[in-house]
Amino acid sequence: MRDIRAAVCTAFDAPLQIEELRLAPPDVGEIEVKLDAVAICHSDISFAEGAWGGDLPAVYGHEASGRITALGPHVDGLNLGDRVVVTLIRACGQCVPCASGKPTICEHQNGHRSPLTRADGTPVDRGMNCAAFADHMVVHHSQVVALPDALPAESICLLACGVITGIGAVIHAGRLRAGEDVVVIGAGGVGLNAIQGARIAGARRIVAVDMSPDKLEVARDFGATDGVLATEASPWRAAIKAMGKGADVVAVTVGAIPAYDSAMRYLGWGGRMVMVGMPHAGAKAQYEPVIPAFTGQQMIGSKMGDVVIARDIPWMADLYTQGRLKLDELVSGRWRLDQINEAIADTKSGAARRNVILFDDP
Q: What is the pTM assigned to this prediction?
């Protein structure tokens, strides 16, 4: 058992509490990681608010990087001291989705024992199979990818979720081809990476849609060719005017029902709407089914960008080293673990691209 410090959710929609917890050693197929950095994703905030239910107490956090400090039995291809990116994508490698190259929707990713307890033995849930709001964590070996030591921890941790989700949404789920037109609804952390993915894939026009003029300016830095304010009466009209036609791909990167209600209006004939942002459980969007039926439009769900992390994270890390993928620019704030509630509040304000908790003083 290892004593660790963690930010614990003890009640939904309440501040996280810094506690000393006990971390069990890695079991079969698992590894222990000493965290260097973890980013705050809106999914962590939604879980902590109770948007999707779950057991408490719990430790969230899933966008992390660190070094391997212990190996459980039957772990191959990883070594003590390896610098790794840690994701929430736990894959059995044997179910139908895994065998079909879709490990993000593995049928057996949930229901695994948590290695966390309080000193009195009270179980603590390992949120999203990670629990990275802590200085150490234990995860399954399928959740990590080793990367070169020279890459900065605070930048590569973003490859664990926001970057792969945004890029994968347009390239893998949206099947974007060079010369096509893209609309990205939401210019936050995931949206900026969807924009980057569209640029990398060779999109002709990339239209960012957001409620903030400042975010639209940032979106241009990441590759957007045009920006449209979502507060306009009919923002899809401005987007279609900028493209000269309806979009081939629309990526909805925010979990806002108004965004989903309007998303299909941006599409052209045969266009694909990719559903990335996750509204709260029970929320419902509306659309007219006759339109996609007549125009051949599609709605596509995309979890974590439909990535295969062993293939896609090294590819994106290499793009970063070439200067073709922005990661450093995504980090908008650096915080200590004991400042996590302030970092969450800043993230909820909408101003941050990604706030990162560093386990050495920032």
A: 0.94
